[in-house]
Specification:
Elements lengths: L2 E6 L10 H9 L2 E6 L5 H14 L4 E6 L9 H24 L10 E6 L9 H5 L7 E5 L4 H9 L11 E4 H7 L7 E5 L14 E7 L7 E6 H4 L3 H12 L4 E7 L2
Parallel strand pairs: 1-4, 1-5, 2-3, 2-4, 6-7
Antiparallel strand pairs: 7-10, 8-9, 8-10
């Protein structure tokens, strides 16, 4: 492998693919698709659908996504998980290349990265584990932050003011960052907004943003704290998985 394309595909809406992403798909000799179990089979299905429409002649190889074990600690568990994923990539490429003639050698490999490879995604860190190190080309995508704020028709920041993009874990462990009026919260499986004093806080929430299953909700946190958690659980039960994101803003 001489070059690795990390192609951001947005939030699952095929219309959000960029022309640059489509060109990169077509340039690849092989595209890797992770399998995350039957509950998330539609994520692989969406990737296959995008390829069938835009790059039907490119070879595809699936690989089993390793399970993450954080019993030895969160950071140590993530490091071991990334090592295991890199090993799966190499094995999948080797299987795909077995029996190929030298003229058909796999030189360019691509991964279709959910969301954007630069924003709370570890694909770049996993790619850094490959040896020998290929040239890594990143194709940016429409992010879930953009899709959420577009869905609610709001700007992400107030006039001249900063905002912070953070995770549910950080919000639970450290609270609201000092001096910041607006938070974008990602990777939150525990409704961490419930740990905050709700007075004066507004929330704009979305699940499956950009997808056909998209659900949006917004309102004062004091009201939505009782509405969003059961809605989230119902959606998870219906689909077998959930990805959500939200914006929190303090008045004034």
């Amino acid at each position: 492998m001489e070059e690795l394309f990390l192609i951001g595909i947005g939030t699952g809406n095929p219309d959000h693919l960029t022309l640059q992403a489509i060109k990169a798909m077509r340039q690849a000799d092989l595209i890797l698709i992770p399998k995350k179990g039957p509950d998330k089979s539609d994520l692989a299905g969406l990737r296959h659908a995008m390829l069938a429409e835009h790059a039907p002649r490119v070879a595809v190889a699936e690989f089993d996504m390793p399970k993450r074990d954080v019993s030895t600690g969160y950071l140590a568990g993530v490091e071991a998980w990334h090592d295991a994923i890199a090993t799966e990539w190499v094995a999948a490429i080797a299987r795909a290349g077995a029996g190929r003639e030298f003229s058909q050698k796999i030189r360019r490999v691509a991964l279709l990265v959910w969301g954007d490879p630069s924003l709370y995604d570890s694909t770049l860190r996993i790619a850094a584990r490959l040896a020998p190190q290929p040239k890594v080309t990143v194709i940016p995508a429409v992010t879930s932050v953009q899709v959420l704020t577009a869905g609610h028709a709001i700007p992400v920041n107030e006039v001249g003011a900063p905002f912070t993009v953070t995770t549910g874990r950080q919000l639970r462990d450290h609270g609201w960052p000092e001096g910041i009026g607006t938070l974008v919260v990602m990777l939150d499986g525990e409704c961490s907004f419930l740990t905050l004093p709700p007075a004066g806080v507004h929330i704009w929430w979305g699940a499956y943003v950009g997808m056909a299953e998209e659900v949006l909700a917004q309102g004062p946190l004091a009201e939505m704290a009782a509405t969003i958690p059961p809605l989230r659980e119902r959606l998870r039960a219906e689909h077998g998985w959930i990805m959500d994101i939200y914006v929190l803003r303090r008045k004034g």
